[in-house]
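Hey,
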Amino acid sequence: MSADRRVLLGVVVAPHGVRGEVRIQSFCEDPADIGSYGALTDESGRRGFTIHPLGEVRGNVLARIDGVADRDAAEKLRGLRLYVARAALPPAAEGEWYHVDLIGLRAVGVDGKEYGKVLAVEDFGAGTLLEVGDKAGGRSFLLPFSDQAVPTVDIAGGVVTIDPPVGLLEPVRKGER
């Protein structure tokens, strides 16, 4: 995977107080680490933001951002998505992967059947899911990201081996649930 890809590290949730501080929802393993990667960028990659974590409030990181001096300026950042270059992150531990590294990998069944590519990695609270499919065809399915359903991940080879649970890809007939 390309080293110049960017990774979403957090989102500015709201201003906090009157001196330009903000609350940031951090996606880092240690939320305060959001300030340890140097300047983060916006979605376009053109604007840089240096984050200085101050503590925690309401489950978010309380932080100061360079150049943001008052509540009005902080309010303008509400919803700002903060990114870092993938190359700035440490290597993933054995058996772990950054979501950005999984997206775009070919999905091949244990039987050799091609299912498309990993389109997205989702987590709705009950566990991580891979969205697998063909962007052009518009058809996709969600697959549990477990050792049973995804026995092999080969980042260097650009492929995940999948073993969809029985019935997952069966068409639903009218009147059946």
